[in-house]
């Protein structure tokens, strides 16, 4: 009886940054490169560190640590926290050009993220 053989090799095609496109009310289609990175940045900045057991201990930012702190401390810590969290992503090469605006009990922080796909301006608001 003859032996059956095949040279067929299965290879899974991977897309480094392709992910589902998520909006406020639905998941529809896909995004890649800079759009996928912007979505990942928004998700990371929206996640309180240590709050959700589904995420690793170093995912998200510990925003609650800033509540009640003085503005100079908030500026320095926001910059450090954001840079440390975002630079863990291998697609990101730099996080700089920080600007802070204080409005009552909140701080609006804007900055530029430079990645292998290009640069993007990001803004986030934190309750302090």
Fold and architecture overview:
With 128 residues, the chain is α+β, with helices and mostly antiparallel strands. It has one domain: Nuclear Transport Factor 2, Chain: A, CATH 3.10.450. It is built from two helices and five strands. The strands form two sheets. A three-stranded antiparallel beta sheet has the order 3-4-5, with helices on one face. It has a two-stranded antiparallel ribbon with strand order 1-2. A hairpin with a 4-residue loop joins strand 1 (19-22) and strand 2. The longest helix is centred in the middle third of the chain and has 16 residues, at 71-86. The N and C termini lie far apart (78 Å).
Count the strands? 5
Give the overall shape, derived from the CA principal axes. Answer: elongated
Task: Please trace the helix and strand order, writing H or E for each element.
Answer: EEHHEEE
- Summarize the main sheet: 3 strands, antiparallel
Order of strands in the sheet with the most strands? 3-4-5
Strand content range: 25-35%
What is the CATH topology classification name? Nuclear Transport Factor 2, Chain: A
Structural class: alpha+beta
Task: Give descriptors for this structure.
128 residues; alpha+beta; Nuclear Transport Factor 2, Chain: A; three-stranded antiparallel β-sheet; 23% helix
How would you summarize the topology of this molecule?
Layout lengths: L18 E4 L4 E5 L1 H13 L25 H16 L5 E12 L2 E10 L2 E10 L1
Antiparallel strand pairs: 1-2, 3-4, 4-5
Provide a brief overview of the structure:
This protein has 128 residues and is of the alpha+beta class. The chain is built from two helices and five strands; from the N terminus they run ββααβββ.
């Amino acid at each position: 009886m003859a032996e059956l053989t095949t040279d067929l090799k299965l290879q899974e095609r991977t897309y480094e940054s392709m992910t589902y496109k998520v909006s406020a009310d639905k998941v529809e289609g896909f995004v890649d490169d800079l759009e996928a990175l912007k979505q990942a940045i928004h998700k990371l900045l929206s996640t309180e560190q240590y709050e959700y057991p589904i995420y690793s201990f170093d995912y998200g930012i510990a925003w609650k640590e800033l509540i009640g702190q003085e503005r100079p401390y908030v500026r320095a810590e926001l910059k450090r926290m954001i840079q440390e969290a975002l630079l863990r992503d291998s697609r990101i090469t730099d996080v700089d050009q920080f600007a802070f605006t204080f409005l009552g009990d909140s701080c609006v922080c804007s900055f530029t993220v430079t990645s292998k796909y290009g640069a993007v301006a990001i803004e986030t608001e934190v309750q302090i």
